[in-house]
Structures are given as structure tokens and as C-alpha cells.
Design goal:
Elements: E1 7-16, E2 19-29, E3 34-38, H1 45-52, E4 60-65, E5 68-69, H2 75-80, E6 83-86, H3 98-103, E7 109-110, E8 113-114, H4 116-129, H5 145-158, E9 163-167, H6 175-190, E10 194-199, H7 202-208, E11 211-216, E12 219-224, H8 231-239, E13 257-267, E14 273-283, E15 287-291, H9 298-306, E16 313-318, E17 321-322, H10 328-333, E18 336-339, H11 343-347, H12 354-359, E19 369-370, E20 373-374, H13 376-389, H14 406-419, E21 424-428, H15 436-451, E22 455-460, H16 463-469, E23 472-477, E24 480-485, H17 492-499, H18 504-507
Parallel strand pairs: 3-10, 3-11, 6-9, 9-10, 15-22, 15-23, 18-21, 21-22
Antiparallel strand pairs: 1-2, 1-4, 4-5, 7-8, 11-12, 13-14, 13-16, 16-17, 19-20, 23-24
The protein binds adenosine-5'-diphosphate and magnesium ion.
Organism: Actinomarinicola tropica
Subcellular location: Cell membrane
Protein name: ATP-binding cassette domain-containing protein
């Protein structure tokens, strides 16, 4: 007799007000396989997994685990059925130890007392079996991202999960950590654990998955084996159309310096050094990329260039002007465009209509104002044009920004910034969390900006993006630029080792 599949979802439909997140989805996951689910942002992947984890109830459809129909009313039911989930955003308590986090909500008891020793030996045993080196007594706040993720997985295994769901686990990792995660997953698989793994990074899906299911607009479009498709074909299945080919990369770098940062130092209120003697120049037609693990000074560097924070030392020149002491407003008016890393907090007024969002930061200028008045008609017309030119998919300029998908929000921001004709464009994680279609479009815009002679400062954690777009590539580590690498020859692994500090010292000139 053949084994029943570990998971069988049939005809799953889930509606939210105004959207059908899952539409008659069928998914079969064999026991002991690594099954990847890929799809654009908003395709319905997380929703489907939340249904399998009992966090959301489907409107229609059935779920069978190991051939048994089951009604999952809550995560507790799912855990009881051997299903565990590691979410996109970690849910650990920083001020507790690994052990405390792992047992939290499932405290081991011996009679009325907590059985800490018992828990510790279980954790050690699990860590051993699955090759997860981790100290149960260390505080979670002391762990790096990759280790935290391991704790999350351990927590799920501790509860007896035999089916492990990982929602975009690699989005937060550097290449070395991704490799390590994949080794862990392979080990879990050898021990018979079934893994469902969501991603939109196609090369990694192709390298790690046994089976790949593509979801588009809430529906499963195809289930394939990695050996039968290329990354490009997969991407086309995801977006449902052919992708534009990458442009040839002839250099457009001129010899006119647009931004010059010299000996820049920024300190926190408590005196800690956040940016430490940083200097670089960006010429017109050049993309200068800065790679780094988040929290190494990227944000502070941007704030200093934008005039949000005052530097303790150093100078910043834009074109032929010293802007070190200018206001943010004056710098923006002088030609700095900015695509912020957090669209929701910095880039958009989510509750306001698109036409107000397109004015944001530029409201004192035509076509948004006439004398002291906001020119509503002019702003709406400009927005309609931006929507068309930047392929923002929306019913019109009056819908609120929150109604757009992340990719469309980002295209709107890019449109707004480019329409102001900047001479320097600062792009912070410009394609984070958006789908491959929107990503291709944003990349295209950045290439176009470069070809048009803009100086572009690109800060990103996506190494492929940095390597692909940059003319010059620096690595920031603990507030210092520790290496300058050639994007034409550098590998993601090399970059990763500078980013984690492993090779920082030897590269320092
Ligand atoms: N709790 C919710 N309420 C309303 N709409 C939701 C909710 N969760 C997801 N959606 C919508 O359902 C669609 C699918 O979302 P999601 O499953 O998160 O996609 P993915 O994980 O593939 O990016 C999106 O349009 C999203 O806005
Ligand atoms: Mg998701």
C-alpha cells in the first residue's frame, strides 16, 4: 500500500473583504519531502499556510493529514496533528533564554513544579538529532538572526511537529546563514520531517526543494520538479507573463561627482559612534551600492545625508554645494530623491488617497500648488499620469494607499521621487518584500535613472540586487566602510563574509 500524503488540501477557498486570498487551492505534500511554495507577494501563500496551521478557517475545502480528514480550529489543533509553523516575523521574547522561549506555552511539569532539567535534556537531544548547535541557557537577545530562527524551529520540534511550515525563512538571512538553514532542513528531512517552505527567491527554491508549487492570484498554477524548470520559467509561472530581459550593463559613470561624503562621523545621544569616519563619492551615472547586515549604520548614514540627524564631524557635498548644515527640506529641494526602506512609516500616508501621497514632500511646488493653495486637480492629474507611467495597479488616484499591494505602493513611491527630477537618488531596500514583477520594474527604473545621469546610492540586504545594479560596491560593518569590492567579480559569499565581519579587518585599507 502506498503511503498517504503528509498533507492534502482540497478546494481551499478563503475570502477576505474585497479579496479572495485563496481560490479553490489543491496542494499535496508527500511525507518527508521539502515542498516549496512560490508566488508573488499577495498571491495567498501565507494565508494558505495559516489555514494549514489552524490560524485561519477556510470558507471552503478540506484538509487531510496522513490521509485523515481533520478540522483545524486553532494552532493547538494543528500542533496536536504534528504541524508546526515558523512565521515570517519571529515571535521570540528577547529577554528570555533559549530554553525559556522553547518551552514557553508548553511548560514541562513534574507534578506541580516546572521540570527545567527535563526540558534542557529534551532540547539538547533535539539539537543533537537535528544538528542544531545551540546553548539553551543563552539569552535570545544575544543571538543573531540565523540563531533565532533555529530557536523558532526548535520550539516547533519541541512540540512534536513532524510537518514544519516555514514562511519566507531566508528573507532575513545572509548567504552563510541561508546555507546553514538549508543544511538543517536537509537534516530534518533525513529524520523524516516534512517541510513546507515559502520563498520568492527562485534560485534557492530550485536548489533545496524536492517539489515546487506555484501560486498565482490565490490559485495553484502548477506543481513541478526543480529539474524540469529554470528560474526564469518559474518566475514566468509566478507572474503569468514573460519577464523583461536584463539590460546590457555598459557603464554610464561620468567624472562629475554629485555626492561627496567626507570623514563623516555620527554619534548617538549616549555618545556611541554609529557612523565612523565614512567617506565616498558618487558620480553622475553611477550606482554606488552599500551592502551590510541591517543595523550596521545604514539608516544613520541615510539620515545624515538627508539632514535628519546632525553629524558629529565631516562634510557632505551635493553637486558644488556644501549641504552639511542644510535642512532636510532644502536638501530635498536641491535634488535628493529618497525611496525609504519602510514604505509604511516613512514613504506613505496609508489612510490618504494616492494623489495626496504623490504630493508628499513636494506639496509646495507645481503642479500640486497654486500660490498658497493645494491644487487638487493638478495633483490628481499628475497622479493619474504617475499611475500610468509607473504601472501602478489601482482603480484610481482616490483610493487610499493601504489598498495597494506592497509592489504597487513601491512603484508609486518610485514614480513620485523620479517625477521630482532628482540629481541624487537614495534607495533603501527598494525591492524588499515586493513581488518579482514589481521588483523587475523598480530595477528597470533604477537602471534608467543611472542612464539618465543620476547618482544613485543603493542600500540593500539583497546581494543579488546590489551586485546586479551597482557600479561600485562598499560593505558597511559597525558604522565603517570596511571593503570596496568589484561588483563584476564579487560573489554573494564573499560579500557575506565581509558583512558578518569575518573578513572585515584584512580588507580595511
Ligand atoms: N487578515 C486579512 N484580512 C484581509 N485581507 C487579507 C488578510 N490576510 C491576507 N489578506 C489579503 O489576502 C491576499 C493574500 O495575502 P497573503 O496570503 O499574505 O499573500 P502572500 O503570503 O502570498 O504574500 C492579499 O491580497 C492580502 O492583502
Ligand atoms: Mg506571505
Amino acid at each position: 500500500m502506498t503511503q498517504p500524503p503528509a498533507v492534502e488540501l482540497r478546494g481551499i477557498t478563503k475570502r477576505f473583504p474585497g479579496v479572495v486570498a485563496n481560490r479553490d487551492i489543491n496542494l499535496t505534500v508527500a511525507r518527508g519531502e521539502i515542498h516549496a511554495i512560490v508566488g508573488e507577494n499577495g498571491a495567498g501563500k501565507s494565508t494558505l499556510m495559516k489555514i494549514l496551521y489552524g490560524m485561519q478557517r477556510p470558507d471552503e475545502g478540506t484538509i487531510a493529514i496522513d490521509g485523515q480528514h481533520i478540522d483545524l480550529r486553532s494552532p493547538t489543533d494543528a500542533i496536536g496533528a504534528g504541524i508546526g509553523m515558523v512565521h515570517q516575523h519571529f515571535m521570540l521574547a528577547d529577554n528570555l533564554t533559549v530554553l525559556e522561549n522553547v518551552v514557553l506555552g508548553d511548560e514541562p511539569r513534574r507534578g506541580p513544579r516546572l521540570d527545567i532539567a527535563g526540558a534542557r535534556s529534551r532540547i539538547n537531544e533535539l539539537a543533537d538529532t537535528y544538528g542544531f548547535p545551540i546553548d539553551p541557557d543563552v539569552l535570545v537577545e544575544q543571538l543573531g538572526v540565523g540563531e533565532r530562527q533555529r530557536v523558532e524551529i526548535l520550539k516547533v520540534l519541541y512540540r512534536g511537529a513532524r510537518i514544519l511550515i516555514l514562511d519566507e525563512p531566508t528573507a532575513v538571512l545572509v548567504p552563510q546563514e541561508v546555507d546553514e538553514l538549508f543544511r538543517n532542513l536537509a537534516e530534518l528531512k533525513r529524520e523524516g520531517v516534512t517541510i513546507i517552505f515559502i520563498s520568492h527567491k527562485l534560485d534557492e527554491v530550485l536548489s533545496v526543494a524536492d517539489t515546487i508549487t506555484v501560486i498565482r492570484a490565490g490559485t495553484t498554477v502548477r506543481t513541478v520538479e526543480p529539474s524540469s524548470v529554470t528560474a526564469r520559467q518559474l518566475a514566468e509561472l509566478m507572474v503569468g507573463s514573460e519577464l523583461p530581459t536584463p539590460e546590457t550593463r555598459d557603464s554610464t559613470v561620468t567624472d562629475q561627482v554629485e555626492l561627496e561624503v567626507r570623514e563623516l562621523t555620527v554619534r548617538a545621544d549616549d555618545g556611541r559612534t554609529l557612523i565612523d569616519d565614512v567617506g565616498f563619492r558618487i558620480r553622475r551615472g553611477e550606482v554606488l551600492g552599500i551592502a551590510g547586515v541591517e543595523g550596521n549604520g545604514q539608516h544613520e548614514l541615510i539620515n545624515a545625508i538627508l539632514g535628519i540627524d546632525d553629524p558629529a564631524a565631516g562634510t557632505i557635498r551635493l553637486g558644488d554645494q556644501d549641504i552639511t548644515h542644510w535642512s532636510t527640506r532644502d536638501r530635498r529641494d536641491a535634488g535628493i530623491g529618497y525611496i525609504p526602506q519602510d514604505r509604511h512609516r516613512e514613504g506613505l500616508l496609508l489612510a490618504s488617497p494616492l494623489w495626496e501621497n504623490v504630493m508628499l514632500g513636494h506639496q509646495a511646488r507645481a503642479p500640486y500648488s497654486k500660490g498658497p493653495w493645494i491644487d487638487r486637480k493638478g495633483a490628481r492629474q499628475r497622479t493619474i499620469r504617475t499611475i500610468a507611467d509607473y504601472d501602478v495597479r489601482t482603480p484610481g488616484p482616490d483610493v487610499p494607499a493601504y489598498a495597494l499591494s506592497g509592489g504597487n505602493q513601491q512603484k508609486l513611491i518610485v514614480g513620485r521621487e523620479m517625477e521630482a527630477s532628482p540629481t541624487l537618488l537614495i534607495a533603501a531596500h527598494p525591492t524588499r518584500g515586493i513581488d518579482v514583477g514589481a521588483q523587475a520594474s523598480v530595477w528597470e527604473r533604477l537602471r534608467q535613472a543611472r542612464a539618465d545621469g543620476l547618482a544613485v546610492l543603493l542600500i540593500s540586504a539583497d546581494l543579488e540586487e546590489l551586485i546586479g545594479l551597482s557600479d561600485t560596491l562598499h560593505v558597511i560593518y559597525r558604522g565603517r566602510l570596511v571593503a570596496e569590492l568589484d561588483p563584476a567579480t564579487v560573489t554573494a559569499e564573499e560579500l557575506g563574509s565581509y558583512m558578518t565581519g569575518a573578513r572585515a579587518e584584512e580588507a580595511r585599507p
